[in-house]
Fold this protein.
Amino acid sequence: MADRAAAVELVAFSVAKMGSDDSEWEDCAGYDPGDPARGRPARLIVVDGGTEAYDAIRWVGQLVTSFLDGDGRSPTLDPSGLDRWFGTLQQWWAETPPEFANVFEEHKFHESGSFATFLGCEVRGLGGPNPRWAAAALGDTVLFQVRDGRAIAQFPGLAAEDFGVTPEGVFTEPTQRARMRAALELREGPLLLGDHLLLATDALAEWLVRATATSDPRWHQLTTIEHPQVFRDLVDDLRASGAMKNDDVTLLRAHVTPAEAGVVVVCQ
């Protein structure tokens, strides 16, 4: 990589469940390109709200907004920093109940609360020659590092059979904090110019893990898609063939480029 400084291009795509409106998408994704001149890393987050969870859309929105908060309230990516953040989010949830449509909603809010899988990532060292990624995860939202058309890292390291079971995640209930501490995973690794980080919710991640074991999982296609409709067509094709389950699908992609490159932003 010599001494060339690195930047990052960011793009996000999403497709709601088949038969659902885009407004019913229960995943959420967000990013902050950071500020290399001040040493502030880029931040990426993808979360997947539980289908049976109460008000999952509100919960995933709160996770993303808080993780990217620019006023010092976002967590550090270490066990103690994330645990404090989880506690703050749980307190917020308890102190800001919505207006309930009926007594059953109120019961679900207080008794079971909400839940989402979580994958948060930083791209550090931007503006310099040695960028790195660092990530924290709870559940089956997965990061893939792709270089020269093949995956060189996967985090968490789930096998195909690990999908489809009850995943770990961020719960609104404080009684789940010990479980969350025990399940939290962290990892980091070096990046080179040209590398891609793909953060994918479970339906896409499971397909990628299965396809990697049997065939080419279209890494080149996923790292070059630039238009939301192209991504939607890919998801539709995989669903129609039975290769991908019908669930909300989200992909957040980071491309490590020379620092003179701009930031590309494409939403759903």
Notes: The helical segments are 56-67, 79-95, 103-111, 177-183, 202-214, 219-224, 228-240. Residues 6-258 form a domain with the Phosphatase 2c; domain 1 fold (CATH 3.60.40.10).
